[in-house]
């Protein structure tokens, strides 16, 4: 039997290839659950655009804009609240129930007849996703506690997102040759149902919940841990840089290719595909690079690559004639830098909290990173519409520079896990200081370490 089909775990001391991590049965099922759910989501994206056109005609753009705004608001608001209420529930039960909610909404979407019904259903769908995704992401480091294998899982996750961007539109196009657009929603339903079945097929670790706390304490705990941890404040700044560059690509590619270059729809798909291909190239390379270099170094390098690319592209357009080849090269390099920023973020979150606080911390990352997108999405579209391509590249590139500079200042270069510190406020008989008030251990924000300091 091939090793990747076995149900056992590889020894954590062995060097694991990128695909070798799928030898773990639990992770393999979770990864497949992610893949089928993403494919279903991609089909829904295509179907929503067509449904909006059927219901709103020439106003479909406004409807889709509202849908994306509802999505981001749900992500930012619901994620930390949901994490506060589900952290004491069995994780497998939570994930399966949320997949069922998403499947039910997908089933209802083909039957809507009013635009307001779309808005309500999308809010329910995205609220379920805002609860599902952080809980799912927080499960992976518990399933794969070895950092080397977890790093490879993060790269596979990045590949899944990139493949979804490529495969889902192709699959949707093939299906639309034989079925109506509303049938695509049933593909979405199938994706969520398959995800639920795969999650149900494995036993998931559920860390012991933290001590009982009030609703406000539970809701804000992840964000407070996040903002008190220097490396995570740096991550937030780099999230802003990635959102700025990513929004430039996602929002403005269609205008750049169709209006500025006068090319067709297939060229739009190919151009976005080059951005995804760059991201995939980085995802393949990162596990090996992260064995040799620090997260901080590679993430900053990736941010600098995508930012430099956008600014150089803007200056190049001023000097040379705009060409499709130039766009393809720029988007490929931007995709490489984008993935180098985002892929290692799970490693930082894993290092920055105890297991029982990880769901709240992943929810905080989910909410705060999407808050960055909530700013950059409309900014990218507005600047491109009002001022044109070069100003859009410079403004979004400049915002990305701001993120990099902030990260350089607030994320210490010497970012050690083990920090020597002294507890002056704890009583003599507290278990944490039984071996002395001054000690060193992996440092995270918790009840005994309420701020990042050497004197507590």
Automatic annotation (TrEMBL):
Protein name according to UniProt: Major facilitator superfamily (MFS) profile domain-containing protein
Gene Ontology molecular function:
transmembrane transporter activity
Q: Which residues cross the membrane?
A: 30-53, 59-86, 184-204, 234-257, 269-290, 297-317, 323-341, 361-383, 389-411
- State where the protein is found: Cell membrane
Carries keyword Transmembrane?
yes
Q: What is its main location?
A: membrane
Which keywords fit this entry according to its UniProt record? Cell membrane, Membrane, Transmembrane, Transmembrane helix
What's the superkingdom here?
Bacteria
Report how it sits in the membrane: Multi-pass membrane protein
- What cellular-component terms does GO give this entry? plasma membrane
Ranges of residues in domain Major facilitator superfamily (MFS) profile = 26-415
């Amino acid at each position: 039997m091939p090793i990747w089909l076995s149900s056992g775990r590889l020894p954590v001391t062995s060097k694991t290839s990128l695909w070798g991590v799928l030898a773990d049965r639990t992770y393999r099922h979770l990864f497949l659950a992610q893949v089928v759910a993403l494919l279903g989501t991609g089909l829904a994206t295509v179907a929503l655009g067509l449904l909006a056109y059927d219901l709103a005609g020439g106003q479909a753009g406004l409807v889709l804009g509202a849908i994306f705004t509802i999505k981001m608001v749900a992500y930012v608001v619901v994620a930390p609240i949901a994490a506060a209420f589900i952290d004491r529930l069995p994780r497998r039960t939570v994930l399966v129930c949320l997949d069922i909610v998403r499947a039910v909404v997908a089933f209802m979407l083909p039957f809507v007849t009013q635009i307001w019904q779309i808005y309500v259903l999308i809010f329910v769908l995205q609220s379920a996703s805002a609860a599902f995704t952080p809980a799912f992401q927080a499960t992976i480091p518990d399933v794969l506690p070895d950092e080397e294998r977890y790093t490879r899982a993060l790269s596979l996750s990045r590949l899944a997102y990139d493949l979804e961007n490529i495969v889902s539109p192709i699959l949707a196009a093939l299906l639309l040759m034989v079925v109506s657009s509303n049938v695509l929603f049933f593909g979405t339903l199938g994706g969520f149902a398959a995800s639920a079945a795969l999650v149900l097929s494995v036993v998931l670790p559920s860390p012991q919940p933290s001590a009982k706390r009030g609703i406000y304490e539970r809701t804000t705990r992840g964000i407070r841990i996040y903002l008190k941890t220097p490396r995570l404040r740096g991550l937030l700044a780099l999230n802003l840089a990635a959102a700025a560059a990513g929004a430039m690509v996602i929002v403005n590619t269609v205008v750049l290719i169709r209006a500025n270059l006068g090319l067709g729809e297939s060229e739009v798909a190919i151009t976005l595909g080059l951005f995804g291909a760059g991201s995939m190239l980085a995802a393949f390379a990162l596990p090996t690079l992260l064995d040799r270099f620090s997260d901080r170094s590679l993430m900053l390098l990736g941010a600098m690559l995508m930012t430099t690319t956008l600014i150089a592209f803007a200056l190049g357009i001023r000097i040379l004639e705009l060409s499709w080849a130039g766009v393809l090269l720029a988007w490929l390099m931007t995709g490489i830098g984008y993935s180098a920023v985002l892929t290692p973020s799970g490693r930082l979150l894993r290092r920055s909290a105890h297991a029982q606080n990880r769901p709240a911390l992943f929810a905080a990352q989910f909410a705060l990173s999407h808050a960055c997108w909530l700013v950059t999405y409309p900014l990218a579209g507005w600047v491109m519409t009002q001022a044109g391509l070069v100003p859009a590249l410079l403004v979004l590139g400049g915002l990305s520079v701001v993120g990099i500079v902030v990260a350089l200042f607030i994320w210490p270069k010497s970012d050690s896990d083990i920090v020597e510190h002294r507890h002056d406020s704890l009583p003599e008989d507290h278990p944490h200081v039984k071996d002395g008030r001054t000690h060193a251990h992996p440092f995270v924000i918790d009840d005994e370490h309420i701020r990042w300091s050497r004197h507590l």
